[in-house]
Amino acid sequence: GNFYALIKPFDGLTFRSSIGGYYFNFNNRDYNYRYLGDSEPQASFSFSEGSTYGYSYTFTNTLTYEKLFADKHKLKVLLGQEAIEGTNTPVAAPRGRRLQGSGINPFSTDLDFVTLSAVQSPVVQSFIFKGANFSSLFGQVQYNYDERYYLSAVVRRDGSSVFGANNRYGTFPAFSGAWRIIGESFMDNQNFFQDLKVRAGWGQMGNSNNVDPANQFSLAASDLGNTFYPIGGQNSGADEGFATSRIGNPDAKWETSTTTNVGFDATILDNHVDIEFDWWKRDTEDLLFRVPLAGVTGNFAQPPSSHVGSMFILGVDLRFVWYGNFTEDFSFDFAINNTFLKNEVVEFAPGIEFLDGVSYRGITPTRNQVGKPLSSFFGYDVIGYFADAADVASSPAQDGAGVGRFKYRDVNGDGAITPDDRTYLGDPIANYSGGATIDLKYKDLRMEMFWNWSTGLEVFNQSKWFRDFFGTFEGSAKGIAAFNSWTPELGNSAAAPIWESASNLSTSGASNSWYVEDGSYARLQRLAFTYSFSQLVDNSNTLSKFDVGVSANNIATITGYSGLDPVVGGDADVRFGIDVGNYPVTPSYLINVNIGL
Known about the structure:
Blueprint: E1 2-10, E2 13-32, E3 46-69, E4 73-87, E5 95-104, E6 120-129, E7 132-145, E8 149-160, E9 169-180, E10 193-207, E11 219-221, H1 224-227, E12 243-246, E13 255-268, E14 273-285, E15 288-290, E16 305-307, E17 309-325, E18 330-348, E19 354-356, E20 366-369, E21 376-379, E22 382-385, H2 389-394, E23 406-408, E24 423-426, E25 432-442, E26 445-455, E27 458-461, H3 463-467, H4 481-484, E28 516-518, E29 521-532, H5 534-538, E30 545-559, E31 578-579, E32 588-596
Parallel strand pairs: 27-31
Antiparallel strand pairs: 1-2, 2-3, 3-4, 3-5, 4-7, 5-6, 7-8, 8-9, 9-10, 10-13, 11-12, 13-14, 14-17, 15-16, 17-18, 18-25, 19-20, 20-21, 21-24, 22-23, 25-26, 26-29, 27-28, 29-30, 30-32
């Protein structure tokens, strides 16, 4: 819900106060079924139940003053304060608590008769969610002279609870200006432009979304595998101990992005075409990233988010809108958006040469390094499959080399395949993306269509690890992968290595280019038809509107990608563009009736 109060003490001055938020409470009971898909025996299945509640709210107060001086000087000043408690971020849940219990082998499969007291080995856990809290002060001044010259200045003072007292607050200014050239007298005698404006801006913005609320604290926890020890001897039972579970970083501060942009807006061809152009560059400093602890430290603690370097994103946005009529009864609107991007890591902190992403199933697909796009794919370059024993013997030495297995490129030419031969295999950043909207109206019938697309990007299709290797989860059904695997007849045209039970560097044990696919696509996102019964409304004394429509979303995707969906999300720094079997988009349909009385 949301509540607000609006007060105008005198003309031009407005005070607005609002508070809004949400509260949730739910209970759950569920089974984790006994999985029979693998050859490994599954001796038990589990039951769990829990209860969770939480909340979040936002409290905002603004004071706005607007005044027009001498009919040409327009001034608007805004001052504001905002407090947010329990913000839901990618690494923080809203403020609340959860009580969760689980156990194995319940005596019944009827959820109405099972409790935690009727299961084996019950375990009860309790969790507290503090969320991320924010406190902000901000101000804005906007000035407009004669609808020709525009100036704007903004400054924010933001504080976040995810940072320690040393760097909790950050100040972020922004400035922009525009010149509406069409308003100048020297444009009076031309008829090509109906509107023309140039603009520029510079501003800073802080980010804390990828920082855990506990990042500033060093914590300890008990863990059966790492902190229990039979101090009195093996027959005395295991004694519980505690060890560091998180290393705190009280000096972390806001990640700061500085954006510079220039652009123009134009209307031409007798108000039938709008053009918008923007060139922009965003430099991000003090990048926050969890640097993994070296395995030789023997430390199982979670590392903190630390400042590791900087990067930039360079973009060009271009938008065209065309309005017109085919006939008196047949009109159209056509809009196309285009975005061109370049992304690059600029520098790392001293002592850091690169940052690898998260490993999954023994494979580390990404590496961040200076001069490369964020979350670039990294691994061995597959040049084919070993054809026979002679091919294995004559090729550079490679761990696990065998007939029908991956054959890697010797990048450094030293005669052996080693970790030094890993190379960059692509990145998930689209060089070009866009969208198009087509809006057609013939008398009372209207059609709306929206397409979007992306090109110049790759996807790391790690779902193939599950799908195309016999040795991963032996006994699971693998579909048609077995029929496309390597044989002497298929050779290098095979879709997957030889069908065998083996896992090593030359099979399923390493990140390589076989997983990397072109992620370009075009998608028909929306198609809608609406019919307005205008004659019925005109002849009615009660109806002001009567529209009936049908629409569909996610209708069709054109792509060469072999996975379920080329649009893959993930954390921007470590798992962006990695497909581990994400659920595909599915069509949805809507029938709507809009009646106004």
